[in-house]
# Entry
Amino acid sequence: MIRHFTARLIGTHFLGVFSLLACLALANWQWDRAHVYLPKIELAQKSFSELSPLRDYLPISSVGVSTQVTGTWQSSERIVLPNRIANGPGMANANSEQASTVDFGGPIGFWIVDILELADGSSLGVVRGFTENAELVPLATGSETISGVMQPGEDVPGLELANGINPLTTEMIVENSRTIAHDGYLIADSNSPGLIAVQPIFKEPPVQGLNWRNVAYTFNWIFFAVIVGLMWVRVAKDELQYAQLASITGDLSHDT
# Structure
């Protein structure tokens, strides 16, 4: 038994265990990511810290959930999104397999997105409302408490916006924020001066089963784990054979 834990083999075992655990951990992470579209049972209001962990993806269980945040507006960091309507679900293309022009059946204008800096120094994109004339909407200033509904970035797989609308993404919010930004954004449910409240695209977590791309990544990492395990066993066996051969050679030299 001792021969399986020589100085050389201890390093091999350590590298093998570390590599195997790393592959399995990455497989587990991809499997979790594959379930980003599972429905959520309860949509009760929750604290923002529960819904949006900083430096992480917005959990699917947070989509469509009401929350409340308090912070200070970054008044010079406004994002204006054109060619939109106040009815968010009406902008989603029902048939994403083919490009189509959708008659929105209502006024077309702008979404006003302002950046709120929270007490912990992080930033959150807030859709404050809809307007047909963005130039008439004053900049958001000072401190304010906002209630609203959490939404994922509009580049989320499975969402296709109609009429070539540019999506509101987390990357866009990050580029316009002074500090590290949360994934996704908040749609305010209160009326700001000169703005019409926007209806969120996702009023609850979307139900579309598994994300098969992440499922494929999961099995890729499991495959890598199998390869690592086989390589580990092979290297350990070779090392044992070399040690045994060296022992036999040493014994023969001693006898002569």
